[in-house]
Amino acid sequence: MNSIDTDLEKQLTRVYVALAMTRDVATRVVSSKPNEPELSSLLTLLDVASEALEKIFDPSLEVSPEGSGNEVTEVEAVM
Fold first, then answer.
1. If I label 5, which of 11, 28, 39, 46 is the partner at 20 to 30 A Cα–Cα?
2. Could you state, in order of their start, the residue ranges of all structural domains in the chain?
């Protein structure tokens, strides 16, 4: 995808902002409940979603390892 139209970009920007706000709230919850380490996986999932949106906004951010046969898809990274 080389470019996205203006309306879609506005919608995705709103999603990105909502995701950032959600991550902020989740970070506070994780910090307030250190005895529940499974909550930190929520932050990881939010990071993966943010990175996916960033790749849509700017495909040049995507890093492809040259000569690497061990490429990991986003789904595999989450697993």
1. 46
2. 1-57
